[in-house]
Each structure stands twice: as structure tokens, then as C-alpha cells.
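Risk register update: the risk that structure generation would not scale has been downgraded. Supporting records follow, first protein first.
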Amino acid sequence: MRSEYKQWHEVLSAEFFGAGNALRSTVLYVDAEVERELAERIGTGLAQAVADELNWSDPDRPLFSRIQRECEIWEQRGSAAPPPSLPVLALSVLAATQMASSGGMLKSNFYGRWIQLFGEQPSSFRANKLKHAFQDVAVMWEELDTWLERTGGLYGTSTVSTDELHWKIGFPISQALVRGSDRQILTRFFATTRLRPHNPDEVSGRELLRRLRVWTAGRDRRLSHRLMEELASAPDTGDTLIASLIKRLADDWDGTLHEPEREHRRRALGLRLVVADRGRRLEWLAEACDGIDETCVAVPGGRTFTLHKGYGDVYEGLESLHPSWQQLGQGLRLEGEELVLEWAPQEVVLLRLHPYLGEWVSAEYFEPGEQHWILAADSAVREVRSMVDALGGRTAREAPAPVPGWKLFKGVRAVNGLAFARALNRGGDHAHVLEPQVRHRTALSGGLRIAPEYRAGAGVAGHFLRGGAPDLMLPASDSPDGCVEVVLDGRTEKLRADPRVPFPLCLIPLDEGNHRVGTAHSSQVFTLHDGLHEGLPPGTGTLGYPCNGTARPELSYAAGSKTAIRGAEAPRSIRLPRTELLRSSVVEAVLLDPHGGVQQAKQQSVPAWMASRLPAQALGPCIEIEVPDGYVWLVYRTAARWSVRALAAAGDIPAPAPAPDDYAWAYAVLSAAQRLRAPAWLDYVAAAEAITGRRGA
């Protein structure tokens, strides 16, 4: 092999498969600009270096026979470095980057650009030979993909992809779709869509493509023109080239931003929006990163926030950053040395009830059958109202949002499959908020659940009341007829159903017991019961009040299966202590009485029966404090502010009567003086001001 070809191999190996690419997605992107920059180091163009290695003289040998022979020797010697075919592969990517409708060629004409790079005339003998020899180039691409997989990420992880439509030319096209700048932006997309590192949930390429279209809709994310064109033209069915490529990038993403200048150190997360306090307050929510329990982030050129990992694996420390209409509509980015948090600007925000926080939190996709809220800017309210009305069923409630210029739609739910499908098919600028997740596996949702599975590892989705079986969420179909083969308890049936709309299994008469449902590739087990029939718990007494519709007043023996109300009578002298609940994020709290009394509120100790069953580090979202008799106000402080809570009805709160020197009481009242405008509280504020000499100040 000539020295120029070897030099190109060395330069390409160092540029794309060097030590800095270990365990990171490798894209062999070579366009005219990259080729020109690398050629300056060598002194010979890439096309010329490859052309000098071609076999034009011997018609009995393949055109790339010299390079193929080198690849065989490379394989025999243990393939410790990138394959010798690297310059050929890079040249094919260069041809793919030049695919455009110009110079008498169509945008789809890869071979025309491939032949043009060698300076050959179209339809000539040499041009035809170059075209037919591309079969051998496709084999070289497969060798590169296999080598990257075999070396376990030491030289990078492969993104080489193709599909049935392109096959041979799909390999170089897959590398030409994503530029270096695109890779940085795509890692931001993975973060804002809250994809977990290495995609453990196996979010499909088609679902990632759907999310990317939503993320780029109406916004210039500065992705390359070529990638945006492919994104717009890719069909929604089958594993397309672009979907396969994005899936490989997502599977290899380690949760960091593609920032070579920072050595890929910074982790990235998407901010969530929380609509709290029944729609009266907005908050930012950041889910905690593994390995980062405490860090700092800042608004570029502005405030700094210290984040601590708290309950529910979320960060505390953003309480004082109140979401504004500018942040919602224009975006928000918080940067630190370890972490970047970002909110992508949008006019319509979909929210679902968080299973642990109990508040409405922004979500990536609509879940048919579940309750949702939608936060919409005034510019989108009319269209959102029309979409919500098209879903049918119960009318959603419309309310003002906690920020000016936005409205809240509460109780948005899709229960009518036909109406839901019509609303989706109608489309519109904001129809994406109703799009369910594109699944590649079956899933169960809804149903009259009696209990979740209580046997760890049993593989049962849950226990349901007979007649209230869950709905079956079908995977997307790749068959021409759009049907999905569903297997229920061993019987196969083809269902032509919109995979976005759940199929109601409750329509099928099913007996009590276990049932398995799904497809040949994925299935789930659930159980149906007529009810839970349990015996009396241990320790239940034998005395009770016989009950046949109405309980009898006489106490008698109630042994065996006799229907009776069993219980115990508590003496009037026994009183349970009065308790109040506070969030665990409260820094300090005090109880106040009318006579100047101040008592520090303390968290109750964990009961022995609970401590023996929970790990030591378990912490609930709230703390429970005991309120002694006579105390009527609770004043507490979070990291952001002071607050006050009445512990009795307004008419039952006595007038304040502190002593002139009850300064601790007065300062506690004044800490939260502006947090409540109730008359009873204002009387206490006036009394506190009199003690501190601030009356009339």
C-alpha cells in the first residue's frame, strides 16, 4: 500500500478511534471541510489516496483486491488496530455527505456522488465497476462494526447502521447524518427528554424519533440541515435508518454532554415542571444523578444554587427559583462544573400525577385512560381547548395558571378509543401532547386493581377484580395490514387496533386465575379474582355484635364463620395525641400559644415495629410532630422562606396575651408576619410588634 493511503489510515484512526473515544459512540463523519483539514496534514486528498490503491489493470481481480488482502492479513494478525479499509469507508461517507439535488443529480443518488469523487464519467466502464464494487465496501463496513463490538468499546462503540431500503449505501449514509455539532445537541435532547444513561428502559428508536420531532417542532435546535431533512422524511413505520442510528446513540449515551473540550465530564438532566398546591404554585424539579449527591449550578451570569439529594431521589435547593412565563416559553439552563439542568421552551406542557410526590409533574407522553393536566400558553389555549373537547367524555376544567399568560386544563382523559384516534389523526401544532409512547413491547394499564404483585420476582403485573381486567397496550405494528398478533392464554388472534389506543381486555370473558397476554416477543401475566377472601387476622377476639344487615346491641360470642362486628371499647380517658404533618425539608419549626409560650417542634421517634422493618436510611416525605394542648400556631422555615399554619379554627383561637418580655415568642411571630392575612393572625402580629417596639413602624 502506498504511503499516502497509510498516512490517511493513521490520521483517521487517531481522529475517530483514539483513546479519547473509548466507551463513547463513534461516528465516522467526514465531509468536505473535515477532508480538507485532514488532507493538509498529509498533502494528498482522500479520493486520490484511495484511487491509487484500486485495481484497474487486472479484470479477473476485484477492484478493491489490494485493500481486501490487507484486511485479511489484519484479521489474521489479531486486528489490534482499526481495519485497513478505513480510508475507503471515510471516502464513502464523504460521498454520502454530498448527496443533494444539484448538478443534474437527485438527492438520493449516492452512486453518482461516489463515482464523481474518483473523477469518472457517469455510465462509463470505470463508473459501472465502481458501482458494482460497492458490494465489497459494504462488507468492509460490516467488518468495522464487528471489530468495534468485539473490542468492547476500547476504540469506541459502533453507530454503523443500515435498513432494508438502503442496505449497502445505508452504512455510509448512517455516518453522514450526524455531524459533531449534532452529537452535542443530541446529548442535550437525551437529557431534556429524561432518557436514562445507556437506555435501560429500552426506549425504541421510533419512540425516540417521535420525541425528537416534538423537541424540534417550531424551534431551531441548530441540528444540521441534513439531519432535519431525514427527520422530516422518515416514515413512522418500521425501523428506519435514522431511528436505528438514534437508538444506537441513545443506547451508548453515558449521561454526559458531548463536550470534548471538557473531556465529557458534565452530566446532563432535563428539568421537570411541578404544578403544586392544587394548581396554585409552580416549582422546578430535578431528579438526582447517581454519584452526585451535592453540587452547585447557576444561571449563566446570575444566581447560584446548591443542590442536595433528598427524598425520592430528587434534588433540593431550587425552591427559591420560581418558574416564570419567560422561563416556560424561552427555556432555562443551569450550569455547573459537574451538572447541567435544562428546560426546553414550549408552549404546551403535559403533566401527570407523580406516584411519589403526589403533585402534577411534566411528562414525556400521554397515557390513554389516565388523568392529565395540560398547561398552555394563551397563544395555544384555543387549539388545546379544541383538542381536549375532541376527546369526549367528561369535560375538562379550565383554570388560570400560577403564571400570567398561561392556563391550566385539569382532568384531561382519553377513555373513548375512537374519539382519541380521531383527535390524534386531526393533527395540529400541539397535537403532540396527546401522543402516547411508541411501544415495542406490550404493556398493561388501568383496570380495577385489587393489589400489586406481592411476591418479588414472580413476574405478575398485578391482581385485578374479575370484570375489571386491565387494558392491553399494543406495540407498534410493522406488518402491511397494520395488525398485531396477540396471544392470550395460548390462543392467537390478529387485532387491527391503533397501537396508540389501549385494547380493553375487560370485554373478553375471563375466569378467575392467572392469565398471560402479549405477543410472541413480549408478554405479561396478571391475575383475576372475584374478591379477596381472607380469614380473621391473628388475635381477633371471640366477642362481637352479631350482624345480619344491622348489628345487634347485645354482645355475645362470635366464633367460627358467624357474621359479627368484632372490636373493643376504648375508655373515655384514653386520648390520642394531636399531630401535625410537615415536609421533611423544613429546617426548623416552633409551636406558639396565646400566652407567650414557645415550644420547639420535634420529630417523633420511629416506632419500634417500623424501625425493625425499614432500613435505617429510610425517610418519608413528611415528619410528624405532636401538638400539646393550648398551642394554636405553627411557625416553620424552609430553605426558601418562613410560613405559618393555624392549629385551630379561627373562632377557637384566643386573643394574644403575652408578657412584655416574651421576646422569643414575638420574634417567632414576626418571622412569618407577612405570610398570612387572617384577622386572628394579624392580632398576634400586632402583639408581637408591641413587644419589640415596632408598633406603627
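Supporting record for the second protein:
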Amino acid sequence: MQTLSRIDRSLRAARRIALSHYVASGLVAALGMLLISGVMHFYFGAFAAAAASVGVAIVIPPDQPAPQRGKFWQLLPAALIGLPLFLAVQALHNAPVLLGLLLVPASFIAFLAGAWGKRGLPISISIMFALVLSMAVPVQGGTGSIATTGLYCTIGSAGYLVFASLANSALNARYRIQMLADVLFALAGLMRCQARQFSALSQPSDAAPLIGELLHRQASLADQLQAARNILLESPRTPRRQRLAGMLLQVLEMRDHLLASELDVDTLRAHPGHPPLLNALGEILGTLADELDSLADALLIGRQPEPFASHRPRLARLELPDEEDHGANDSTPSTAMLARGLSNRLGHINDETLRLIALARGEAQPDLSLVRTAWQAFVSPTAWSWQPLSELWHWNAPPLRHAIRAALAIGSAYALSLAVPWGTHDYWILLTIVVVLRGSLAQTVERRNHRVLGTLLGCVLTGALLAIHPPSVLLLLIVMLAQGIAHAFAVRRYIVAAVAATVMGLVQSHMLNAGSATFEVIERIADTLAGVAIAWAFAYVLPSWERGRIPALVARSLAAQAHHARVALGLGQLQAVDNEPELAWRLARREAYDSLSALVQATQQSLAEPRAVRPPLEALGRLLAHNYQLLAQLTAVKTMLMSRRGRLDAARIQLPLQQAAEAIDQALTASDPQPMAQPPAQEPPALPDPFEQDLSPWLLRRLGLASELAAQVRGDAEAVLRSAKAEADADRAGRGAGE
């Protein structure tokens, strides 16, 4: 039975990969290359087809599922910059010194595209592909041969520009489903991690490793949500689009409830009767995660999702800890009340899951009054701006330092390629550096290992393939398939992409040289080892250690938390007649999550760096944990204000809300925060049963806890910044002593 269960899980995982948006994107790339290269092969021969496939390969890197609006302009820079460089390399094929003088500054310019962040990196790769792959294209004899080769390459790039734009529009509906399914799988994974934390709470030593996984999953989910917003919230005008957009908004609410479910667990853990309750809650949460997985699977295969029975009755039957003997005016919540509150928060997740499935089944109607009119505010910009480049020119800018580092690495690798005894595949060392060298050491080390193994496997596969002397049409199909696999898995699983890219590069080189080039496994492996060694070595040249980014990321997270607190604690939504306060809160919430996601990612990447240059990881861990706890408290308050406003005394909570917002803002943003003036001491209000009486005392408790957490966040941030400043001063002192 266990073997069958493992096989079933493996089959489900394989199906999810096969139906994913990144595999769909790879298939688009493969089909585009097949059509363009096939037409060129039919009319002009094998060399024309291979040269056109290089033009396709130049434009492919930035081709990812994207909104329909701006897709063409997303790809155009790759062709506009890459094609002239392709021709320039062709013209300098027989002038090694001049070619080297072109490669170094062109590489510097290419990697400056990193100033545009995630949008810019694929453009960098495209430009470098234009340079490096042109070195693999032999110059043909005869008058105008360079122009002819350039024309073939241009046809390939232009044809793929049109094809990719049309394919993106044709697959827009499918991409919407796939992106939503990807988010649902990520949310289910986060829920399972939270469920394991509930179970581990009975053994605190087991809970610590889960905190890091929780932070990682929160950050990953934030990235996936933004990618999904970009597509799902674009023009939700049809009923089908509205249903999918409504499901995405439902996921955002579930994330909030899931975050709030971490509240009060420490108090429950201290109670001797907590393990059975928390284990039961963890089991229910895991079951809800399974429902999300089933929903995502149904969406991917186009099947009607199955309904599921609510877990509310089961939650109601849970055995809660015994009620302590509290006085009438006791302001300390009992563990029974906290347990009921935690159970109720899981009930909210249960209700949101039910509504999510009802939306998918067409049994509920989405409320999209907000995003119909303001969807542009939630999606990433598609237009290119010169502003990122204008802000780049200071010595500590990571994209500038990476561009210098990459140009030096390419120059050194090119000099080495001219010196090695074989010297027939000089572009292979450069190509290895292009795909391995990244802005962070962590990414470079990961790609270094995968590139070596992938090249070894790819060389073996290609050697076996070419040994049977297949016809050129079959080789063209193999190049197409390898391109699709490499494109699909370049971000998700690079080792698979490395194998496919090796096969593609070797077969394409064989075709470009009309089958006359000798295939040498040892040479390719030696070139790969040289390339990864150079990339790894230059990762330490002008390094941009993560600790250099930490102060700015900490400042961003503090500002985002303060702004979110001001909006979440406002009473505007209670009194408004339009959606403006709701829009402001959703935008503030997104920035709060995104800022923490960036800080989590920087912290995780620093783990691969030398110990001497790592940021203060312990202080950063406390800062991140307290930041998420603060976000959870504010989410709980906002939930009370929005969904349970009928049980709040507006006159009683108005001043405390204002005071809490001011206290949190001052704690997080003031340059020299001072203790807030405290109101006259008075007896803390008793906490009534939250399910039967006025909720105002519970809201006031949350406000107090949020204010205390804000002070802790500020203290953690100052500890991190003091450590970063001390390390920077020590570095400057060391450089001064060396000079």
C-alpha cells in the first residue's frame, strides 16, 4: 500500500509539472523554434535553419507568461540590442583581439539590465546569448555572407517576436488557470507547514526549524501571488475571468487568516492540556491543504472541483482546555477563550476554502467591485523606464558591481579560451559563465554545481545521439525539444535545464558546422569546468554581500509596516461609501508582505556567504518573526473592524485605534522614538466571552499587543543596523590599514 501511495504521489507530481505554466511556456518556445527553423530549413537549408534558431534563442529568455498588454514590448529589447551585437561578432570572427575588445564592454552593458530587477535579468541573458552564440556560428564564404547570416538570424528573432506575442494572447486563459493553480499549491504547502508547527509545539525543539521554512514559504507565496496578480487581475471583464480573479482575492484572505492562526499558540503551549487540541487543529489544517491541492488539480485538468463537507462541526466538537477560575474583572484571557479563538480562525480558513470551491464550481459570485476599476494598481508595470539606469551610478550599487564583475569574468574567460590547446569551442566557456554567474554567491554556487553535472549528462546524451548520425531534420527536432525543456526549467530546476541546454548547444553547433565539427566530450567538460571555476572565482570580485542590502530592506519593511498599521487601524472603511479605504489597505498589505519577502530572501541567500561577511542572522531571525507577528495582530484587528463591526463599540475604540496607530508609526519610523504619553492608569477591561458579548475589549487587547510588538520590531531592527554598521566600519578600517 505504501508503495502504491508513493507511486500515486509521484504521478500526481509529474502531472502537475506537465500541466504547469512554466512547461507551457517551454512548449511555446519549442513550437516557435520548430515552426521558424522548419520553414527556414525547407526553403533555405540546414544552415539557414540553424542560424534562424539562434535568432529565436536570443528572444526566448524574457518570454514568460505575462499580461497581454505590453507583451511585445517585453521581448523587443532583446532583439533590438542582441541582433546588432550578433552581427558585430560575425564581422570580428577573424580578429580575436578586436572581438575581445567588443565582448568586455558589451558584457558590461548587458548585465546593467539587472538594474530593472527580475524583468532585466532575462534581457541580460538574451544579449549575452547574442554575443556568445554568434561565436558558434561560422562565417560562410562568399560575398555578403555575414549579411546573409544576419538576415537569417533576424528572421528568427522577428518571427519569434510575433509568434510569442500571439501565443501569449492565445494562451492567456490557460495561463490564468495555471497561475492560480500554482498559487493554490503554494498556499497548501504553507498550510501544511503551519499544521506541522502546531504538532511540533508539543516539542519546542522541533518547532524551531519550521520557523525558517514558514518564512521561506511566506516569501515564496508573496512572489507567486504577484506573478498571478499580473495576469489574473488584468481586465477581469468576462464572467470566467471574474471568477478566477475572485478566487485569487479569496486566497489573499486565506493567507491573512493563516497568518493570524499563529497568534496565541505560545500561551496554549504552556497549558498542560494543549497537545491533543493543537494536534487536532493541525490535522484539520492539513486536510484543508489537501482540499486546495485537489482544487488546483481539478483546475489544471479542466474538471469540475468536488465539494467537501465543512469542518466547522468537527471544530465545534474539539475538547478545549478547562476554563481557569477568573475573577469578574480579570483582563487575562483564559486558555479556553484563546483555544476557541484559534479554533475559530481555522474555521475562517475552512469557510474561505468552501467559498473558494464554490467560486470554482460556479455556485458563488465573486465580488470584484474593487479590482474592476483599480486592477492597474495591483499589477507590475510593463513599460520600460530609464529611471532604474539613472539611479545606478554609485559604487555600492549591486547591479553596477555585478556588471563590472561579469565583464571582467567574460574578458578573462575569453583570454583563456584563446590559450587552451584545443581552442575550437571558445564560446562554451563564455556560455557557462553567462548562465552560472549571478548577482548573489548563493545562486552562483547552486548553478555552479548543477552546470557541471548537467553538462556531463548532456555530453553523454549528445555523444550517444551523434554516434548514430541522425538526419538533419531529426537534429532540428532535438534542438527544438531541448530548447523547450531548457526554457521551462531554467528557473524551477536548473539541473534539468543544464542538461537540455548542453544537448541544444552541442547539436546546434554540429548543425552550424555542417556536421564537420568533431564532438569531444572531454573538451566540453574541460570548458565547462573552466567556466564554472571562473564564474565562482569572480563571484568574490567586487562582491555585493547581502549584508550591504540589509539596511535598505530593513528600512523598507519598517516603513511598510508603519503604513499598513495606519491604514489597517483607520476607521475609514467603517464610514466610507466607496472602495477607496479598502483599496488603500490592500495596497498597503501587499507592500508589507513584499517587503518582508525581500528581507527573507536576502537572509536566506546570505547563508551561502563566508561567515565573516554574513549579516547578524540571529537578530534578523527575531526581526522577521516579530514582523510577521505584528502583521498577524494587525490582520486580526482589521478582520474585527471589517467582518465583526456590529459587535464593536465605535465610540470606545476610536481613540485607542488612533493612539495605537500613532504609537506603531512612531516606534517604526521615528529617527529617535520616544515613549508615547500614556493615558491615566486605569483598571484593564475584563475580557468577556468573544462569541457572546462585546468584542471591543478583545480588540483593545490586540492593539496593545501590536504596540508592544512594534517596539520589539524597532529594537530588533536597531540591533541589525548596529551590527551592519559595525561590520561596515571594520571593513573600511581594514581597507584603510591595507592602503
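Residues 325-329, 676-682 have pLDDT under 50 and may be disordered. On this basis the risk owner (M.S.) recommends closing the item.
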